[in-house]
Amino acid sequence: MRDTSDTIVACSSPLGRGAISLIRISGPDLSFLCGELGIKEIKNKEARVKEIPLQDGFKEKCVLTFFKGPNSFTGEDVLEISCHGNPLIVELIIDFFVDSGCRRAGPGEFSLRGFVNEKLSYLEAEAIDDLINSENILQLNASARSLSGKFENKVDELINELIKLRVYLESNIDFSDEEIIEDFDTFKANLNSFNNELDDFIKDSNASKYLIEGAKVIITGPPNVGKSTLMNSLCDENASIVSENSGTTRDIIQRSVKIDNISFLLHDTAGITAFSDDPVEKEGILLAEGLLSDCDLVIEVLDVFTESYVRSYDKPVIKVENKSDLSDKFRKDRIKASFLNGEGVEELKKEMIKKLNLPDMLDQITFSARSRHTKLLKMAKIELALAAKVDSIDALELIAENLRIASDFFGEIKSPYTSDELLGKIFSTFCIGK
Amino acid sequence: MDKFDVIIIGGGHAGVEAAFACARMNKKSCLITNNLDDLGKMSCNPAIGGIGKSHLVKEIDAMGGLMGIAADFGGIHFRVLNSSKGAAVRATRSQSDRILYSNKVKEIINSEHLLTIIDSEVSEVLLSNSKSKGVKLSNGKSIHSKKVILTAGTFLNGKLFTGEEEEEGGRIGDKPSKKLADFLLSLELNSGRLKTGTPPRIKASTVNWSVTKEQPGDSPRPTMSFITTNKIHPQQMSCHITRTNLKTHEIIMEGIEKSPMFTGKIEGLGPRYCPSIEDKIHRFSDKNSHQIFIEPEGLTSKEIYPNGISTSMPKEIQQRMVNSIKGFEHAEITKYGYAVEYDFFDPRGLNHSLETKKIENLYFAGQINGTTGYEEAAAQGLVAGINASLAIDDKAAWIPKREESYIGVLIDDLVTIGTKEPYRMFTSRAEYRLLLREDNADQRLSPIARKLGLLNEERWMSFSKKLEDIEKERTRLQGFKLSLSQINDLNKNANAKRKSSISALEALKRPEITYERLCQKLKIQPERNEIALDVTTNQKYFGYIQRQKKEINKVKKNENALIPEKTDFNQIEGLSNESKQKLSLVKPKTLAHAQRIPGLTPAAISLLLVHIKKKSIQKNNVA
Description:
heterodimer; A: alpha/beta; Four Helix Bundle (Hemerythrin (Met), subunit A); Rossmann fold; six-stranded mixed sheet; 44% helix; B: alpha+beta; seven-stranded mixed sheet; 21 helices; 22 strands
């Protein structure tokens, strides 16, 4: 948890040269800071032109706009400084405020403060973040719709349906002496249609997650088969250190590449081998294993000399065999490639898009979801699938347990509701009580 | 020098359980009641147990309490509800003979030599510097004690309603404890108003039983206590079922504007799970008929209790309504139904120990805290009795945990969430429901009770024997290997594929394999029911139990994040006023406790966390 009591500063516009850059400051010390700049009184939503003294007598003429808390985006006093769009000037201005006692904001910290000060719901905070980070028009639309509550509405809708299912179960358990008309078969049918609806939602969420966050790809395989070369040829850049020695890739190297509007975050792993004694390499291997459980897609690279290599993954896998130019023998179930010559790269790119199983019409995705959401939705789905498997009304309390856990996952997306609310639903639905 | 360690005001279900706990913990205690006859009296319907409630009874019993035993000695009808469902939600319910029940309670209480029982009315609690020092009786006499447990909360400032008639009082025939009520109001604790109601009582000999549906008790007959057998049960009786009809509903609709619930005379909120018949007909107008359980009041009683038609309609309408019901055509009403509205004190003013936050040494238990039901009251009495005794010995309070018992759920709900309606236990209130079974209440609580000194040798021996037998049975079943074909024999939907052979214990995890069939197959003598049930259930629930335990560990982390006692929640920057109020009222001691406060947003929780961390950093810097 980050501290929220100090004053933070960061550049809020993209780094780089442009007409204008925007620096944002938020926190309790603004009046003091303005005093440093010689501004005695500050008024809400007032803009002023002011020179900020930087290094060696250089002064930058800026526009200062002030928003008084709690009526600001963060809920705190906020100052926005517009300066010339030069990264050096931006850095110097930030330095000026850091010297005056501010702290550089971490990623998302302004949104966090807005959330903490109850200016934004968690889902809104995320949607804003998505809006800012949108890199194409598809993303932009999806996150704008999310901000307007589409995602939240859908989650609410599912939560309400889940409550109805739980009402049936809990009333049958706690009020079995009463006359409750609904039967088990109806319940099962409702549960199944809920599960189908959830499946569709997860598929859309996944697609939207790829749009917003991109897909996480792990490139794995034994050492020295050309994983780093592959990464370079996908990115057209020398990102990884490529060498002839086995085990050169010490850290996980990340590169992002865009294929058909989808960002792929490639992770080049240290050659996964359990036999390395090098502690640095071992750490890299461990990291890779953590990543494996967290990724969306695995690219397993072997080369024509690899004797036998059997790994199983619980993620979609693309299997590639490199160095096909050096031998006539190759495995049939793999994409035949020679990364040095660029052979097989296009085929691999196509396969990467295919494996994401995106819906046909990407522009119809109605919201932005994040991996946090899709992960929770999938966990809920596992519970609900277990519940759907139970066939006997005798095990109602076990179905109820699966549904309770599922609704906890939904609660983690939204806000939790208590058993008392559940009881309230029971009483309003059924005539209960002797 | 104090005359007593603990004074217990009131002799209802909370009072007797509190007094009995104090006595077992070797505290010189005194129970004061204004009617000796009322000790352990069942003032509403003559039943103990039921879903959620029986879990409380078994837990009280596992803690060495008296309710389960009295229910067995007084029980004239026993049933296991949810018997076709899994062990966690099965619940024993008993009908009691009111006289036999309260006689057993009196017998148990009277045999405690450290306990004095006084027939008198308490007019106030003696206070000095916001600490209680004893009580003052209405005859002016003072009695001093280290602790006071107030359980005399039944119908404080009670108002009775029958039609347009209105009178002051608690239950019919009870003296209202007006002086004490006035004193309590002077303490300026947060209070609220609740209501409840009763059905008219009917003369048993005027019921035409032949047209009602008989519901006999279960056979074999279960017991309420872990240490009794059903041989001690008195003669058994049946319950009967009848129903309201359209004519009944017509009569009620006709008189509904005369019901105090609808004239606005009653402001208190009634229990949603126990609505009056006029409420049911008003709210569920599409239902043509409602079920009525005809419960016997006792072996020698001449009255029956028609459960399901609680009402406060005018007497004349009650009579016509009753006579419209099948079997009640010629029924005579012996007592008319009525609604009662009464005060309660916001239980969020209590610590988990049930000591009031405002007045040291004063504990509240029972209906005064907004609960309804004998079982809920008794559970609180037990907790208050234990904690008053522990505090005298300078020991930390016993805070039953949510994952450990329904008692823990009850106490935590009350002090954290408070209540807007009379609070009743349900299994759905317990998030760790699968762990909290009736049949394992002793395993969950008896070791704790033993440590606290609440269990006598007899109970401890019998519990230890049970544990031993469970272990033996598990080992025995572990020793048998079942071949693939044997498993498929036992399993209708034969789909065992993976392993060639598994142990008999392992085989029990499969839903279709029952203990009985397994024993037949292995040609072994089955163990007695309670052992078989425990072994089977732990296998059937295995995966679920593992998961709940994981979840508990997760929550424990936040349970260990202590909120410093002196935290001023109003000083936390950025918190909304609503959140500040909620936190200041409950004064949570841990982060997990704060998370359970309804309506506190995740944002508020993160602010709280930041605040605690900041404070602890500041403290470390100073040190």
